[in-house]
Design goal:
single chain, about 100 residues, mainly alpha, 5 helices
Length: about 100
């Protein structure tokens, strides 16, 4: 239920933003730089917001809302490899699919 609500919310926000597209293009009649500036600011806001999301490489993803609230709280802002990534163990299916072909060389 939570995943569907999140997807629905993201779809709603994307539709709201797409309503402003023609108005953004109409800003070009005032100055040709304004549409590009508006698009840049929207992309910049998305980039800054995304940079605050926790890294999920090698992590066991949360199953409940309580787990999700605690997920990534101990990570630092610019931590590229959080401590939980050291405990990551590759699934056996992945080892079988992506095993190195050392005998070719």
């Amino acid at each position: 239920c939570v995943r569907q609500s999140g997807i629905g919310f993201c779809t709603f926000i994307s539709q709201i933003i797409s309503i402003g597209g023609p108005y953004c293009i109409a800003l070009g009649t005032t100055d040709l730089r304004y549409p590009y500036l508006v698009m840049f600011l929207i992309c910049l806001a998305g980039t800054v917001a995304t940079s605050f999301l926790p890294e999920t490489v090698g992590a066991k993803l949360p199953e409940t809302l309580e787990d999700a609230n605690q997920f990534g709280r101990s990570d630092k802002y610019f931590s590229m490899k959080p401590p939980r990534a050291a405990a990551y163990q590759e699934p056996s299916e992945q080892k079988q699919i992506f095993k190195p072909k050392s005998d070719i060389y």
